[in-house]
Amino acid sequence: MSVTAAKGFTAAGIAAGIKENGNPDLALVVNNGPRLAAAGVFTSNRVKAAPVLWSEQVLKGGQLTAVVLNSGGANACTGPKGFQDTHATAEKTADSLNSAGLDDTGGHSPGWIAVCSTGLIGILLPMDKVRRGIDKAVAQLSPHGGEKAAIAIKTTDTVHKTSVVQGDGWTVGGMAKGAGMLAPGLATMLVVLTTDADVDSDSLDKALRAATKVTFDRVDSDGCMSTNDTVLLLASGASQITPEYAEFAEAVRAVCDDLGQQLIRDAEGAGKDIRIEVVNAASEDDAVEVGRSIARNNLLKCAIHGEDPNWGRVLSAIGTTSAAFEPDLLNVAINGVWVCKNGSVGEDRDQVDMRYREVHIVADLAAGTETATIWTNDLTAEYVHENSAYSS
Amino acid sequence: MSVTAAKGFTAAGIAAGIKENGNPDLALVVNNGPRLAAAGVFTSNRVKAAPVLWSEQVLKGGQLTAVVLNSGGANACTGPKGFQDTHATAEKTADSLNSAGLDDTGGHSPGWIAVCSTGLIGILLPMDKVRRGIDKAVAQLSPHGGEKAAIAIKTTDTVHKTSVVQGDGWTVGGMAKGAGMLAPGLATMLVVLTTDADVDSDSLDKALRAATKVTFDRVDSDGCMSTNDTVLLLASGASQITPEYAEFAEAVRAVCDDLGQQLIRDAEGAGKDIRIEVVNAASEDDAVEVGRSIARNNLLKCAIHGEDPNWGRVLSAIGTTSAAFEPDLLNVAINGVWVCKNGSVGEDRDQVDMRYREVHIVADLAAGTETATIWTNDLTAEYVHENSAYSS
Q1: Which ipTM value was assigned to this complex?
Q2: Residue A79's domain spans which residues?
Q3: N or C: less crowded end of chain B, CB within 10 Å?
Q4: What was the pLDDT predicted at B296?
């Protein structure tokens, strides 16, 4: 059900011809109100794609009537022309929606329309195809269009990703794409979440930032940060119910967590999903720094691929951080076996069973009470293959 | 000629049986004076191997009579027993050298003997074999033993690495090992440099730090920092010549640079050597930060492996740094073709010839006049294979 699980939303996903292989490549999500509240979180990369620059501006008003997304081209590093194209995409979407007269939101304006793009960096979009695609998508808008929208934003994703959490009379749903360049703040991901809860944009913003901080921001598949990451949350208010903030925020977190897990499970070329749980840290920041350092250690990621519980590589990764710890108090467990105790050899590493896809590493810093969990993948020949051939 | 190119040094390299395959695994370098000055630079990893903790202490005196090195085991994360083993290794080396009575340095003391180890983390050394190996190495010490010493410190190195620079009547020579876990501050490298120049330990220290900062510290093959990195410089004074400091420092830099290049060329599984030159940075620190970020971008390293001039991945790596730059002023050249100009599409990427092993990336930050060069390698299926099978 994706973005159309919540009442008040319609969506479509179509093939506009941006992708040379003819696969679906343009998605549209429309908020039919009555409320038009929205919030967004964007990449922290300082090299931002044109659609990110555009959507960041648009979101300052706290209102969106629609989101138009394309795969097949990131429109990043495309200069002033790229930004003009993004602007033109929003204008065309507003015009096409207004011409269709499908809703009573009082008319669409480009300034209420977010644009998201994903694909190869440094290529201008074929705007004629984008314009015709927008007309086609508007014509196919449907309250059952969520799945098709989720399919149209795939790039190297092998599956489309959707999630829904039901509240008491209200719903949060969403779709995501992302398979490579998965890293914090955020991954190469486009995510659109919708809700029919009657929530204002400040509360949406607060709930969304709290959720992404502990979900998408802690998915670190390959340490590479994208230029296009966007996570949007739109509220239609169509349920006419305003949930308790904590209950609503938890639903948003749960949908983000589920989508984040789906991103990790579909990461390019990965054979293992690695859950790195840092415990007994002096601060949450320390726990995240240590988790990320472990997640980005290529040698460890290779070892996990080889089903080798090489805890020395965990310690060498911890040692590069500025977190509070004493080397001779560190403990490391891999799949439940404490292979490193007090910074030295612990239980028999031959007891570690690594045959399954999920691998669980616990790094005990013995320096406090804080914890954080970071997700990553192993490093495989398939990852190298996929990413050495992507743009050629 | 390696560490015995300079007068006043003897060396040996033998098979002590630490490696199960019977390859050479123990090296000894002895300074026969008359001067016994020394300096050292060590890993900045906070998880330090026992031999690093030992040698850091020993070097505080500014004097070394010998360095004993083993491959086949890093003696890292081995707790108090590991440190006792390092201490015992230095004691045994002093005893054996004193028993042999080969020199007139006034006798060897454990406190003047540095110990270096390399190999798998978390394994105690077979000390009986180490002790017997030390006796064997002392018996084979020779002013022509430099090559054998260089061979005995290899781990996954496919070739041994040596370098010599001649001054006016004096010499700087050295040997290095290192093929994986190559990263800054330093790489997984053991390096012993020797000179017969008559230089005091303060000048050695100054020259060595200046040299490693712009050579070994800028070799970043896989972003992984080791627990055992050690670079030592010993001066015998046997030439009885004290060169100008600048001339001496340049010779030390040249030897470090040559050995650093050899490390990159022999990096595990690598098919390309990538020279990342950051120019027009606001500061040298900015240039190094940007160079390192590019060097550690797995997606770019995969693209280079696929001979794909994917400059978008260079920009996305620059964008994650805190360096001074404006995204729309960035320029990137790959093998001489300015594929990115003003943050957008530049010259035709099809003009880029990437058939050769060396790849040259220039990142122009357009923010100042400083520059730095970082060396890295591509990411290959062979790297994954070597490092998924290393300890098993």
Answers
A1: 0.78
A2: 2-265
A3: C
A4: 85
